[in-house]
Amino acid sequence: MTTLTDLSMAEARDGLRARKYSAKELAEAHVAAVERIKPLNAFITATPERALAAAAEADRRLARGEERAMEGLPLAIKDLFCTEGVLTTAASHILDGFKPPYESTVTANLWRAGALMLGKANLDEFAMGSSNMTSHYGPVESPWRRKGDNRALVPGGSSGGSAAAVAARAALGATGTDTGGSIRQPAAFCGIVGMKPTYGRCSRWGIVAFASSLDQAGPLTRNVRDAAIMLGAMAGHDPKDSTSVDTPVPDYEMALTGDIRGLRIGIPREYRMDGMNPEIERLWEQGKAWLRDAGAEPVDISLPHTKYALPTYYIVAPAEASSNLARYDGVRYGLRVPGRTLDEMYENTRAAGFGKEVRRRVMIGTYVLSAGYYDAYYNKARQIRTLIARDFDRAFKVCDAILTPTAPSAAFALGEKMDDPIAMYLNDVFTVPASLAGLPAISVPAGLSGDGLPLGLHLIGRAFDEAGVLKIAHVLERAADFRARP
């Protein structure tokens, strides 16, 4: 018999409406699951009382026939989203004790749709990392293990707690944020679906900022249909966010027709890199074959500036982080470490409050924005970013979506790459270009490595064509028929 925590979001929604179980029962099952997966350290703050109170309201609405799109569905919320009256830390010591007096727009949209919060999920500090190893609250462990090897693995980052909670069946879905791959890469590592919408599709208001021109909220779910349901509730124009785009939100679930005949799928030649993992290359070829069998046509395309994407990202993102993180000074909220002077208090607070990776990126960002280096580094990176976006514009004249791998490898062991920041940054090599161009992209679990770990395939679409991306991803998902569980 399927347990309540094994249900997909769509199945749980339909079961609630058919009165097969109550929202209270569904919430209680997931609250127990959150407790059960404590060893994974996927949550910073659990909110069982809040979940059960919201479930009681959901049951009242269901009884009256007034259910909303996500009525009674339990979610994990990445601890980068401000939640009114609930501790919000960005996984950093510097935000100790911060309980926002307001709600982020994305979470407010989810609560209006009837969803309920199980707790705040762990992440890399200020979303800076690809492993969930940089959290002040300790690393998150993936629920997966290699065959014959019980060493703890990373869940990917920065949305590692969200991905681990969904993969471990402790939440039906979770919010994540993606700056350079922080939804898609952990989704690939944990064998789930992760979608980064077009920049501007979901409001950034109330999300702790890392790099403002790149950050975008999106869903992590166990299948593509669930991603469509959740994105429909999250998205929408927000006048409080000047980068939010005022364009209608389609019914994404209705887009999952299963028919992709005649669509052209771009295969970028620049993504075939020297020394590429043969397992990743084979999976990519299999993905092309699946889409071809479904009636789509793979076409070769060129994205010539791809090779500059990673260095460009690691100039632009730290520069924006340097500016955004200047607000954490011990004056208004969070940690304060006293000093004899105001300047000393700033120095003491920031030195004690920020972890090593955050300090590294703030220093890089401050350097590239400094008077002597602004034109040589930051301005040049902005120009290359424009060229990368132009490459995609040209590619979409001959194709409808682009297929690539999600990550260059399966999950690695905790601590395996921590001493080599460059190796860690290379985890985002396939995801960063779409982020720089602000395009929608999704990772779909498509196979297992030789060690029995999940591998993902990655689809990139035209701006604001999330419906098209989801439609193709749904076909890819059905062809892959990924059923493996941690």
Describe the structure.
- The chain is of the alpha/beta class and 486 residues long.
- It has a single domain (1-486), classed as Amidase signature (AS) domain (Amidase signature (AS) enzymes, Alpha-Beta Complex).
- Helix content is 37%, strand content 13%.
- The protein has 15 helices and 11 strands.
- β7 (264-268), α8 and β8 (297-301) form a beta-alpha-beta unit.
- The longest helix has 22 residues, at 374-395.
- It is globular, with a radius of gyration of 21 Å.
- The model has no long low-confidence stretch (mean pLDDT 96).
Low-confidence stretches: none
Number of helices: 15
Strand fraction: 5-15%
How many domains? The number is 1
Spatial order of the strands forming the largest sheet: 1-3-2-4-6-5-10-11-9-7-8
Q: Please describe the biggest sheet, giving its number of strands, its sense, and whether it closes into a barrel.
A: 11 strands, mixed
Q: What value does the Rg take, in angstroms?
A: 21 Å
Please report the total strand number as a whole number.
11
The secondary-structure class comes to alpha/beta
Distance between the termini: 19 Å
CATH-assigned fold name: Amidase signature (AS) enzymes
Helix percent reads 25-40%
Reading the helices and strands in chain order gives HHEHEHEHEHEEHEHEHHHHEHHEEH
CATH evolutionary superfamily? Amidase signature (AS) domain
CATH class category label: Alpha Beta
Q: What is the overall silhouette?
A: globular
**Average pLDDT metric:** 96
